[in-house]
Amino acid sequence: MLLKPLALTFAVVATFVSPVSAAQTQAPPAPKTNIVVETVATGLKNPWGMQFLPDGRMLVTERPGSMRLITKDGKISEPIAGLPNVVQGGQAGLLDVLLAPDFTTSGIIYFSYSEPRGAFRNGTSVVRAKLTLADGSGTISDGIVIFRQEPAVSGRHHFGSRLAWAKDGTLFITTGERATERASAQDLSTHLGKVIRINADGTVPKDNPFVGNDKARPEIWSYGHRNMQGAAVDPATGQLWTTEHGAQGGDELNTPMAGKNYGWPVITWGIDYDGSPIGEGTTKDGMEQPVYYWKPSIATSGLAFYTGDLFKGWKGNILAGGLAAGVVERLVLEDGKVTAVEPLLADQGDRVRDVRQGPDGAVYVLTDDTNGKLLRLIPAQ
User: Fold this and answer.
1) For residues 305 and 292, is the Cβ–Cβ distance under 8 A?
2) Known catalytic residues?
3) Would the CA dihedral through 264, 267, 268, 273 be positive or negative?
4) Each residue of 111-131: pLDDT tens digit?
5) What is the domain extent for residue 259?
6) CA angle (124, 99, 83) in 5-degree steps
7) What is the DSSP string of 58-85?
8) How many domains does the chain have?
9) Which helix (DSSP H) or strand (DSSP E) does residue 124 occupy?
10) What pLDDT does residue 8 have?
């Protein structure tokens, strides 16, 4: 059964009030890491998301609408069969992918995409489906849409769309405000510009912050976001972290909390593309400040916590991809603050779409290009 949220038309401002705190935009350089960059595979078409499979292969999405398997030695499969049609163009397409916690026995995966909704409208949707693997490729079957971002709008931008498991087994989904619908990020009757939290079957957790509020979508976890293309849960604490595109400057690193307002487009550390200010400034009572922000923008996409032993001294660090800057930034965290930063891959010249830690402790990176690459980062000997 396809789950469709109740359509609401109310604009509402929540009553959560929190004090304004200082935001951080600079940190000292971290000690330089000597790394070796290996190219695992090339020829990917605008790859977007990746997951490591138990059999050693990787599952990779391509924005034009394909999903492929990549072997350890870089062989790329034919497209996996059974995927839905996706809206293509701009930032639209097949987006993130995530394995179910019990994938080894269930074969269940989740993926997000830009779903056509008729009359030139579209929206971010999430599917739960069965993946059947074969030697050469695989097949998707029994797909069910468990979340549809409402309302559907026209356009090809700001789909957000990272997926991450909470420690309690609920699913976080990041959405964008679709660029043309900025004010909707503050409107709790829409899913636009929100962190969404649902159960694995698409139902709403009873402890979501707006459950019982008939003027709000019950799936909402936090709001006031622009376009979140990075999300990761800290394995040590269970806290969700996200990265969010600013306009010109003002990319944000946030720790979205239940029911809280992260300000867009009322407050921001960026400016508009024509140089004009956005909203009311950089701070406002009742609106959260980012943990860290980038100015100028690096165009954040992809986010991971490093938990391995291969890179000494990295454990607990955040790895944040940057499209415009062509970097992976290693952010050293202490007590929830960024205390040092190291840019990686700055000499490669590639747009970084996603970054993940592999089961071998290496760092894997997808580059966003029509001839996209899968890179593997290891320490230099």
Assistant:
1) no
2) 158
3) positive
4) 999 999 988 999 999 999 999
5) 35-379
6) 50
7) EEEEETTTEEEEE-TT--BPPPPBTPPP
8) 1
9) strand 121-133
10) 34
CA distance 346 to 17: 40
Sheet of 228-233: strand order equals 228-233, 240-244, 251-254, 292-294
Low-confidence stretches of the chain (pLDDT beneath 50): 1-20
- The verdict on residue 201 lying in a domain is yes
CB 228 within 8 A of CB 175: yes
For residue 12, the model assigns a pLDDT of 37
* CATH, residue 48: 2.120.10.30
The string of DSSP letters for 30-63 reads: PPP--EEEEEEEEEESSEEEEEE-TTS-EEEEET
Q: How far is the C-alpha of 267 from the C-alpha of 284, rounded, in Å? A: 7
This prediction's pTM: 0.93
Domain-embedded: residue 30: no
3-state secondary structure of 371: coil
pLDDT at 164: 98
What pLDDT, in 10s, does the model give residues 299-313? 999 999 999 999 999
